Amino acid sequence: MLIVVAVVAVGLLVLFFWRLRTLSHRVGSFECALFEGKRWASGIATYTRDHLDFYEVVSLSLRPSRRWARREMDILARERPVDDGPGALAEARCSYAGTEFQIAAEDGALDGLRSWLEAAPPDPSTSRIV
Questions:
Q1: Do 44 and 29 meet the contact criterion of CB atoms below 8 Å apart?
Q2: Which of 9, 57, 97, 124 has its CA 20 to 30 A from that of 50?
Q3: CA distance between the termini of the chain
Q4: 20-42: string of b/e by CB count within 10 Å (b at 16+)?
Q5: What is the pLDDT of residues 53-91, one digit of tens each?
Q6: Do the strands 73-79 and 66-69 form a parallel or antiparallel pair, or are they unpaired?
Q7: Residue 112, CB half-sphere, CA atoms under 13 Å: how many?
Q8: DSSP string across 66-118
Q9: Strand duo 40-47 + 51-56: pairing
């Protein structure tokens, strides 16, 4: 019985670390923390063409725990880090569909997030030739 529990525990650890490695090596991924009212959740965010996906670190799920559409997300304010050294963290207050939340990440990662939001292609439903 003890051997079965040990094998299951090792299997879960291998799955956990495989998931983290896979997420962190995706193109367009960055480490961050998300605050939605009660607590900070550590995670990895990944850009897709139309969404920003957030995966919590402490999870085995292969699906994102949060997903924000690119066209509906905005950065309202940003606090630059006091320390300008490598790995300095900054916070951004964001809005999505009327709900506010905060993201903390390295300053360069938040620069990338702002650029990704600003570089969204025109919305075909609103573009028209006058």
A1: yes
A2: 57
A3: 74
A4: eeebeeeeebbbbbbeeeeeebe
A5: 999 998 888 899 999 999 899 999 998 876 766 777 899
A6: unpaired
A7: 16
A8: EEEEGGGEEEEEEE--S--STT-EEEEEEEETTEEEEEEEEHHHHHHHHHHHH
A9: antiparallel
